[in-house]
Design a protein that fits this description.
The chain is mainly alpha-helical. The protein is 41% helix and 9% strand.
Length: 109
């Protein structure tokens, strides 16, 4: 018998991350390629070096840790977003997914 799920607001950060990684997990290579592909915060377009991984759907409300749920945000935008699930990648770089896949394929050859 499995234990009932704990509501998201009562789970620890490590438990939320464990559950997120069960749904999907990105690799260091995928994050590096994404960060270099966009080169800026996809929300405010700040070109600074203080770019962080943002989970588009936060893991505390059921988002995965896969690359499909990541976007590069500056620390300011990431901190201020709270539970906003807006995906800014397409607005920052239309057709980003095709270029992302092309770069991953080149690196893996």
């Amino acid at each position: 018998m499995t234990a009932p799920l704990t509501p998201p607001d009562r789970r620890s950060r490590s438990e939320n991350l464990r559950l997120a990684r069960e749904k999907g997990r990105h690799t260091d290579l995928e994050w590096l390629v994404m960060k270099h592909l966009f080169k800026v915060c996809v929300k405010c377009r700040d070109p600074g070096w203080n770019i962080e991984k943002d989970h588009i759907r936060p893991i505390c409300i059921g988002g995965s840790d896969s690359v499909d749920n990541l976007q590069p945000l500056c620390a300011r935008c990431n901190t201020s977003k709270t539970l906003d699930c807006t995906d800014y990648r397409d607005a920052a770089l239309p057709n980003w997914r095709a270029e992302f896949n092309r770069r991953i394929a080149i690196v893996l050859e």
